[in-house]
Structure formats: C-alpha cells, structure tokens
Amino acid sequence: MKRQVPLVLCFLFGVATILTRFSPHPYSQFFYEEVNSWVLIITPFALVLATVTLIRAHVTRIRRRTEYWQYSFIVFAGLITMVAIGVPFGPQYPAFEWLFNNIQVPMDATMFSLLAFFIASAAYRAFRARSFEATLLLVTAIIVMLGNVPVGDLIWSETSSMKQWILNNPNLSARRGIILGVSLGVISQSIRIILGIERSYLGGGD
Amino acid sequence: MEIFGIWLAAFLTLCIYSFLYRDNPFYRFAEYLFIGISVGYYIVIYIHQGFIPFAWEPFWAAVKPFWPGIPREAGWIGLIKLIPIALGLLFFGGLSPRHTWLIRYPSAVLVGFGSGISIPLMLRTFIFEQTRGTVEPFAAINAGTLSPWGILEAILMLIGVACTLTYFFFSVEHRGPVKWLSKVGIAFLMIGFGAAFGNTVMGRVALLIQRIDFLLNDWIGMIMDWLGSIF
Amino acid sequence: MLDKLMNIDRRIVFILVALAVIIPTKLSVNLPISVSEPTQQLYDYIDNLEADSTIMIAFNYGPAGLPELHPMGRAVLKQCFDKDVRVIGVTLAPDAPTLANTLMEEIAQESGAMAGEDYVFLGYRPGGALVMLGMGTSIAGVFENDYNGTALAEIPIMENITNYDQISLLVDFASGSTTEQWINYANTQYNLQIASGVTGVIIAQMYPFLQTGQLVGLIAGISGAAEYERLIDAPAKGMKWINIESFVHLLIVGLVILGNIAFFIRNRQEE
After folding, report:
1. Tell me, what DSSP letter sits at residue C236?
2. Which of A17, A121, A159, A175 to probe by mutation at the C interface, max C CB count within 10 Å?
3. What ipTM was assigned to the predicted interfaces of this complex?
4. pLDDT of residue B74
5. Would you call C1 exposed, middle or buried from its count of C-beta atoms within 10 A (0-12, 13-18, 19+)?
6. How close does chain C come to A125, measured CA to CA in Å?
7. Is A165 on the interface with C (CB under 8 A)?
8. What is the per-residue pLDDT across B88-112, written as a single tens digit (0 to 9) for each?
9. Residues 6+ apart with CB under 8 A from C212
C-alpha cells in the first residue's frame, strides 16, 4: 500500500503516456489531454509543502533561539504583509505591486549583482594559466569577455567575430557532447523510474 | 509614494552592498526581509494564478451540478476531476511525519507522466536532432556546397562532439587512444566553460550596472533635482 | 612587493569594480555596436512576419534577470507593435507576472497598441513543461482568463487562437532552462517555432540548438539587447549599459593578466 501502489501507478501512467505518443487515435489523445490536465491540477498542491517547510524552519529557529533567530521575525513580517494584502485583493492590487517593485525587485537584483564583485576578485586571485587546459579556459574567457563589449572591436576589429566563431564551433561541440550525454542519462533514468528500478522519488521509510 | 519607494529601494540596495565590507546587521535585515517578501509574493501568485484556476475552479465545476438549487447540467463525468484534486490533497500528508508516505501517490503520478512524456520527446529533441546537426554538414560536403572553411568546421565539430562524449564515457578505461581522445574532449570542454565564464561575467556585471544606474540616476538624481529646486 | 600584489585586499578589487561602473555611467560613452548573426536572425524572422500575425512571448525571469532581459523584451515588443504583429504574453516564472505585465503595458502605451486587440498578458501558471504541453492542445484549457481576469473568449486577440497552430513564433526570455523545455515540448511536439533571449549565464548552451534550426534566433544577454536596440533604431538601456560594461570587462581582463604576470614571476623566482 505504501510503496507498491505508487510504483504501480508510476508504471501505468508512464507506459500509458509513452503509448499515447505513438497513437493518434482519439481515445489515446483524450487520455493524454485528460492526464495532462490532472497533472496540472496536482502541481499547485506540491507547492504547499515548500512553503510550509520554510515557515517551519523559521519557527524552529525562533523556538531554539539559534544564531540570528530574531531575524526570523522579519521573514514573517514580510511574508504576512504580502499575504495579507495579496490574497484578498489579488496580485494586481497597487500596494502589493508597490511592495514587490520597491522591496523584492531591488533586493533580488542587488543580491545577484554582488557576484560581479566576487567574480572580479576570484578572477584576479584564482584564474591562473597553470596548465594547458587552464590556459585554454582563460584565453577563451578573455576573448569572449572582450568580444561581448564594443571596446573589444576597437582593440582588434576581429574580436567579436572570433568570439562568435568560438561559440559557434568548439563551444557548440562541447555543449552538444554534454547534451547528448545528459539526455541519454535522463532517458535511461526515466526508463528505470517507470520500471520501478529507480525509487528515490518515493523517499525513505517503509 | 513613488519618492518613498525610491528611498526604500536605495536603502535596501545599500544594505545589501554593505556585505561587501563585511557581514553586518543591515545586510542580515535586508536578506531576511527579502526572503519573507519573496515567499509572500510566491504564495499570493500561487494562490491566484495556480491554486484557484487549477484546483479550486475545476473542483467547483465538478461539484456545482450537485449543489442544492443548481440545475444538473453536467453529468457524473465532471466528478472525474475530483481524482486529481484528491491526489493533490495527499501532499498535505507531508505535514505529519506519520503520513508522509501519502505524498508518494501524487508524486508517482507526476513522475510517471513526466517520465513517459519525456522519453520519446527527449530522444527526438536532444538525441536525433543533435546527431542530425552533427552529421548534416557532411551531406553538404558530399553535395559540394560547403566551402573549404566550412568543411574544416564540420570536421572540427564532429571531432569535438565525439571526443567530448568519449570523455564522459566511463565504461571503458581511459588508456591509450581513448585517453588521447578524452584529452581532446577536455580541451573542447575547457573552451566551452571559458565561453560560459566570459558570458556569465557579462550577465553579472549587467546586474551591477543596473543597480548603480538606479542609485546614481534615480536616487541621487532625484536628490539633486530636489536640491536644485530649493537653491 | 609581489606577495602584496598577489594578496591584495579583495575590497580594493571591489572598489575598482565599482569605479569602473560609476565613472562611465556619468560620462555617457557611445561606442559602435556590431550586430551578431543570431540577433539578426531573430530580427529578420519577426520583420518578415505578416501584419496581424500572432507571436507568443514567454517572460520567464524574475528581478535577477531583469537588467539583461527587460531591455531585449522592450525592443522585441516595440518591433512587434510597430509592425502590427500581435503579442500574447505568458510566464512560467512565479516572480515574473508583475514585471511582465508592467513591461507590456508600458511598451503598448508608447507604441499605441491596444490591450486585448494588439496584445494580451495571460499571466502565470505553475507546472512549467506541463503548461507548455497543455497550451499545445488548448491555450484556454490552461489560461481560462487573462491576467486581469477577463475570460479568453471575450478577448478579441484570442478570437481565432486555439493553440500553437495559430502562433507564428514563440520568443522565450529566459534566465533558466525554459528555452530547452520549449524546444522539447513545443517545437518537437507541436512544431512551434522558437527563439529566445537569454541571460549571460546560459548563452553558451543555446548554440547547438541554433545550428540545428531548433532555435530561429537568439538574443544573447545585454550585448544582444544592445544589438537589437540598434536594429530597431531605438537606443535605450541596452546600448547605454553595454558601453559601461566595456570598462568593467577591460578591468577584469586587466586583473586576470596582472594576476598571471605576478604568478609567472613568482614561479620563476621559486625555480
């Protein structure tokens, strides 16, 4: 009941879905469309867990008085404010949009922009031509960095063309190798899941 | 309100940048506020744009014909939508350690359907099409429509793809010719990663430029305008 | 001296980076911008669409992708509205609806496009690939209403649109892996033509799809946005920022070279 039924469900839905892809029969298409709409209905429920997990984590922090536990109140203040305005009035309510535009947008963008500083610092400290492979990586990065900006062509008129050639040729080959390798891995993993060999999605326990 | 918004955004931006000096209470305040506000935003969007249209409306459409006082236009067939809703509700089992196993039912349907749909599509999109892209230039070589430079690029591409795949092929020990092929594969991978790094730098710097543009032009610009209007 | 140079306080590097942005921001530099082939391909594809064609734009990015993807979104929307190409906006990113809706309204207002007739924003639905697949059968099956809550049946632009068969092109503005998903679930499954505008982080992985024609065009990061602005002859943030970007890239390249020179000198001394 706890493990066998989900495995059977997974097998049935997996095999049936594959079969629908090879059959244009109206029944087959009806099944596919119906199941797709089922899965769309199930998805939002999964998001409940993610939210509850986060709330639980911060409640635990406050209860246990872990380091910086006071800041968890700020998490709840932000969360409750957004929910209190957004749930009854909708996401297009001006106050909700104002909070999003003036708090979430600048902070999200700024958080990620910090990486510009760290990349520059790391490039200076760790980006070394220690071996042939590292040199290839370094030289390519420099060409692409310069080829991406207008000043690159002022230094040497072929910089952007060279960047484009790198992206179109050796980069493409490497990426294609990765795509082929990863896809074969995903396909074999999917087959293992349908056949019940790979069961990690069931989690632990009996 | 707009002016206050710019001040607030500027204050929070500076709070986060203060981390560049070292970790401090201003940064932590902004960090935790960001988590709270964004999770709150997600909850609202999920409810209004996900839960209501995908779960509540199908539920209501299914049970409406059986509601007292409403004429039964749709038949029992509408109730079929209660099955995925019931499956979705099983996710709430995750809230109690004793009932966590209930999550396996909706997960099995999601994973089964997802795997079933992706096997044939991934084969076509990522295996067949990408293989076609690799060998197709050779048809052009055969037809005599490819320039010498194009021929060189086609051969280079084939070598690159084959060697990169060899590097990821662990079923054979990397010795002798296989070792050399995989070494060539590493060289291609390094060029690929170098290109990715160069582009990533561009992306992150663009974010920084946007924030500084905001601070200098929107915020300080606004202050300057205000000072200009006084003096 | 060499050790000092190699172990310089990282905050000095931070200050240099900040200055490399602040000074050109105030100088307003204008360097010539050349257009790359993938950007040109997308521009030409949209330019060759007949008036009253419908394209779909997927705004799959949150605030962290905004500086790179908003300028290109702005440019593509402007081109579409100027050419009378209708636009259906959607998003699969939960933090995108407010940004995408505001952007579409803003550009529509600038271009004189009418809501519901020239464009519509359908909003967000969770499920990613499932939403892509669902729209292939019926867009109204996934989005019963638009973002404002109007039923799709009441929106003029949606009158003759059932699924991807009536959509000439999908442009995915992505800060994640959605473009590959669109290719997999909408191009392979439903023959929908796909183009994309992506953040710097994922540019390199798009090239295999360009070569096979699974992508009909690509706007690559902020440099692609600047190129697109040049193509539609409407300089905006993209062109402004890519010029500033030049100075930061020069600084980083300079730092890498300096770091390597110090590294080689020390290696030689140790030998």
Report:
1. -
2. A121
3. 0.93
4. 54
5. exposed
6. 6
7. no
8. 999 888 888 888 889 999 999 999 9
9. B129, B130, B132, B133
Question: Which residue in C15, C143, C188 has the most chain B C-beta atoms within 10 A of its own C-beta, making it the best mutation to test that interface?
Answer: C188
The structure tokens listed for C93 are 């990113």
* pLDDT for the residue numbered B99: 87
Q: What pLDDT, on the 0 to 100 scale, is given for residue A173?
A: 97
* Cβ neighbours for B219, distance < 8 A, ≥ 6 positions apart: B6, B7, B9, B10
A168 to chain C, any CB pair closer than 8 A? The answer is: yes
CA C171 to chain B, closest CA, distance in angstroms equals 18
Name the residue of chain B whose CA is nearest to A3's CA: B104
Give me A137's structure tokens.
């990586």
pLDDT tier, B77 (very low <50, low <70, confident <90, very high otherwise): low
First CA to last CA distance, chain A: 10
Tokens (6 digits) for A198? 């790979």
- Across chain C, mean pLDDT equals 94
Tell me the CA distances in angstroms from B183 to A175, B71, B154, B168, one per residue in order. 16, 73, 20, 11
CB contact under 8 A, B43 and A177: no
Interface test with C, best of B202, B208, B212 (most C CBs within 10 A): B202
Quick one: angle between helices B148-167 and B129-143, nearest 10?
A: 150
Tokens 């536990």, residue located: A69
How many Å from the N-terminal Cα to the C-terminal Cα in chain B?
24
Structural domains in chain B (count): 1
CA C95/CA C123 separation, integer angstroms: 11
Helix, coil or strand: residue C219: strand
Boundaries of domain holding B174? 148-231
Residue type, C120: V
Q: Do A82 and B55 touch (CB under 8 A)?
A: no
Question: Is the predicted pLDDT of residue A1 greater than 90, yes or no?
Answer: no
At residue B61, what is the residue type? Answer: A
What is the predicted pLDDT for the residue at C60? 97
Q: What is the pLDDT of residues B10-31, one digit of tens each?
A: 999 999 999 999 999 999 999 9
Q: Is residue B73 over pLDDT 90?
A: no
Over 90: is that where the pLDDT of A118 sits?
yes
Asked whether residue B171 is assigned to any structural domain, the reply reads yes
* Alpha carbons within 13 A on the beta-carbon side of A182: 11
In this predicted structure, which of A45-49, B27-31, C41-45, C136-140 has the lowest mean pLDDT? A45-49
Query: Cα separation of C48 and C53, whole Å?
Result: 10
Structure tokens at C198: 């992506």
Q: Which of B199, B26, B212, B99 is nearest to C175 (CA)?
A: B199
| d(C-alpha A40, C-alpha A47), whole Å | 12
Residues A33 and C140: beta-carbon distance below 8 Å: no
* Minimum-distance CB partner of C17 among A116, A154, A178: A116
- pLDDT tens-digit readout, C83-99: 999 999 999 999 999 99
Domain for residue B116, yes or no? Answer: no
b/e A16-48 (16+ beta carbons within 10 angstroms → b): bbbebbeeeeeeeeebbbebbbbbbbbbbbbbb
Rg (CA), chain C: 22
Q: Does a structural domain hold residue B4?
A: no
Residue B96 domain flag: no
How big is chain B, counted in residues? 231
